[in-house]
Specification:
The complex is a heterotrimer.
Chain A (H helix, E strand, L loop, with lengths): L11 H4 L2 H17 L3 H18 L4 H8 L3 H14 L2 H24 L2 H11 L10 H31 L6 H25 L8 H5 L6
Chain B lengths: L4 H10 L6 E10 L2 E11 L3 E6 L5 H7 L8 E6 L2 E2 L4 H7 E4 L12 H12 L3 H14 L15 H13 L5 E5 L7 H13 L3 E5 L11 E6 L2 E6 L1 H12 L1
Helix pairs in contact in B: 4-5, 4-6, 6-7
Chain C lengths: L2 H19 L15 H12 L1 H16 L20 H20 L6 H28 L3 H8 L3 H21 L10 H4 L1
Chain lengths: ~210, ~240, ~190
């Protein structure tokens, strides 16, 4: 699985374990919200930027692209604080969020999807007591990524079929046939999962222990 | 009759009492809608074709053969294994190829999808990699290892779906209308793939020429077997009945 | 969970993602253009029910977290989970679960009215109840200020709740996915 936000370069940050990077990110998030000193928060922002550009060797463009969606929110927040409280509280709130968003962007840009999915599978392991099987969590994530282009394609086909019969701009009227079609598809995919052994997976350990070979 | 190499091997090795698909007084209904009525059959042939109108019960019949559907009444035996009680072993023995490859491809990229079934079987990583590469090469997908599945052509998608089933090395393969969504060139390609298989196959289809050279053909009608015999005469009977 | 349920969960996670690709629709008389993504939250709950609907949205968030740019406007990665609007994201699995629960409770007599009730409570009340305090906390602003700021989105959300309800009732008729445990013969007789 590969996605647009990963930036493939060789760096120590890229090589660091995904679990460690996520743990550091969580720690940074908690720390930043406990600290009320502007100089420390600005220092954190600078440190994250140095890690991003120097240690992880990420292009500035990739970072800006990930942080850009948050700009309008930060601008609104700063204006609000200038009007209601004071510039210091405003700068503190904005810098804090910017540091955190940038750090999150670094983790996303330096970690492969497969590694992050493995961390997700590891994180849900305690849920095993409720019958959650970690490997299935990875499978559902993979199926989601498989379904996205498929649904977009089916939607396009239904739009064309409706346009051919003179319907225009009927966005809502498209949803019902689309949903029924993809629900049928998902039901068959469920059967295919069973046919390919997903309902009774064998772990390599079981197999070595003498479960019948395929 | 063509006895595949693999078929003969397995028969000897597994030392099973019977090597056939057997349906004993099988009836099935979805809720209160009956689809199959008291079907009894023994299929020992290497190549079996199944035809019939939409809703005649042939798709349900196909799903009975690897336990995707467990019959409401009666028994289905695969090489002597009951699909009701020995489901896991039956699934491992019988591969299933669906009509719509989009409903069968699970993973977003090609190699990952072929590997899926092997992971479920608990095959070790190095052997998985080797078997996946073999399959990709055999079905003309070697250059598409990390290719997104949705960018493949319709024919390539069906070949990927077939590769994902065959990589698990089943001893029998059931095809449910494998060429219905394909153009002529790809239909021929899939027909050749089926023809070259060593495994025993059951093919449900509307494309009658897919069944030339088969050992036996069944015609389903209203949930019953209306005709059963050699392909030439059975298909002639079926076509006459439609006209 | 059966394999089919896993497929349904993945399907609706993907539907929410695809709705994020739909460009925002400006509607006359409504100050903020309508984005389609929360329509997906409502549909997940009202088509799949509580458990599968909630899991579908958790899956969606996991897929966004591992870096898929599937949030409306092509956003993704971990960065979106720490912004001032992140609370709205966290509310989605809960919203889908609540909508699903209300839908299941009224399933036998489910109609447009019940669908609206479920979507207004789960799809609007729950989302704002979680999103607004989060904005206040993360942006260091007062609750009232955060609530006032979100008022502009209410008209669009009302339109979406209506649309989701119409679609949910139609899908129930054509392809019902929610299955209630069969009534015991004693209760039926």
């Amino acid at each position: 699985m590969t996605l647009a936000l990963y930036v493939p370069v060789a760096s120590p940050v890229h090589r660091a374990p995904a679990g460690l990077k996520l743990a550091l990110l969580t720690g940074l998030g908690a720390g930043l919200f406990l600290i009320e000193r502007l100089d420390v928060v600005v220092g954190a922002l600078v440190a994250v930027a140095v890690v991003a550009l120097a240690a992880a060797r990420l292009p500035l463009r990739a970072l800006v692209a990930q942080v850009r969606p948050v700009w309008p929110w930060l601008a609104v927040l700063l204006v609000f604080h200038l009007v209601v409280t004071d510039w210091r509280t405003g700068t503190l709130a904005v810098t804090r969020l910017l540091a955190l968003v940038l750090a999150a962007a670094v983790v996303t840009a330096t970690t492969r999807v497969t590694a992050l999915v493995a961390v997700v599978e590891w994180l849900v392991r305690p849920l095993g007591v409720f019958g959650v099987r970690p490997a299935r969590v990875g499978l559902v994530i993979a199926m989601t990524l498989r379904f996205v282009p498929l649904i977009a394609e089916r939607a396009q086909r239904i739009r064309e079929a409706q346009a051919a019969r003179g319907a225009t701009g009927m966005r809502l009227g498209m949803l019902v046939p689309l949903l029924v079609q993809v629900l049928r598809l998902a039901a068959t995919l469920g059967e295919a999962l069973d046919a390919r052994g997903a309902d009774a997976p064998v772990s390599p350990r079981d197999r070595r222990a003498g479960a019948p070979a395929p | 009759m063509r006895w595949g190499r693999r078929g003969a091997e397995v028969t000897a090795a597994a030392d099973l009492p019977r090597t056939a698909l057997e349906l004993q007084n099988v009836s099935h209904a979805y809720g209160d809608r009956p689809v199959l009525h008291d079907v009894t059959l023994t299929l020992g042939e290497s190549r079996v074709g199944v035809v019939g109108a939409n809703g005649s019960g042939k798709s349900t019949f196909a799903r009975l053969l690897n336990g995707l559907v467990v019959p409401s009444a009666g028994t289905v035996l695969v090489d002597g294994l009951d699909t009701r009680t020995q489901l896991r072993e039956v699934r491992r023995r019988v591969g299933f190829v669906f009509q719509d490859p989009d409903a069968q491809i699970v993973h977003p990229t090609v190699a990952e999808d072929v590997e899926f079934g092997l992971t479920n079987l608990g095959v070790p990583a190095d052997e998985r990699a080797r078997r996946v590469e073999d399959m990709l090469a055999r079905y003309g997908l070697a250059g598409h290892h990390d290719h997104p599945a949705h960018l493949l052509s319709g024919g390539q998608k069906q070949l990927l779906a077939i590769a994902g089933v065959l990589v698990m090395q089943p001893q029998r393969v059931v095809f449910d209308e494998p060429t219905t969504l394909l153009d002529l060139a790809n239909t021929r390609r899939v027909a050749r793939v089926i023809d070259e298989l060593e495994q025993h196959v059951v093919v449900v289809t509307h494309h009658l020429d897919l069944l030339t050279g088969f050992d036996r053909v069944l015609v389903f009608e209203d949930g019953r077997v209306a005709a059963d015999g050699a392909p030439a005469e059975t298909l002639r009977w079926y076509v006459d009945r439609l006209s | 969970m059966k394999s089919k349920d896993l497929a349904y969960v993945a399907l609706f996670a993907a539907i929410v993602a695809v709705l994020g690709l739909v460009p925002p629709v400006p509607v006359p008389g409504i100050p903020v253009p309508i984005t389609a993504q929360t329509l997906g939250v409502m549909l997940a709950g009202s088509v799949l029910g509580a458990r599968r609907g909630g899991l579908a949205l958790l899956t969606f968030l996991a897929v966004v977290a591992v870096g898929a740019p599937l949030l409306s406007g092509g956003r993704g990665g971990l960065a979106v989970f720490v912004g001032p609007s992140a609370g709205y994201l966290y509310s989605w699995p809960i919203a889908a679960f609540v909508i699903g629960l209300l839908t299941q409770l009224t399933w036998r007599r489910f109609n447009l009215a019940w669908a609206l009730v479920a979507n207004l409570i789960g799809g609007i009340a729950v989302i704002y109840a979680i999103g607004i305090p989060f904005t206040a906390l993360f942006g260091d602003v007062s609750l009232t200020a955060a609530a006032t700021g979100s008022l502009a989105f209410i008209p669009g959300d009302l339109v979406k709740a209506g649309a989701a309800s119409v679609v949910a009732v139609a899908v129930r008729r054509a392809y019902p996915v929610i299955e209630l445990p069969a009534r015991r013969p004693a209760a039926a007789g």
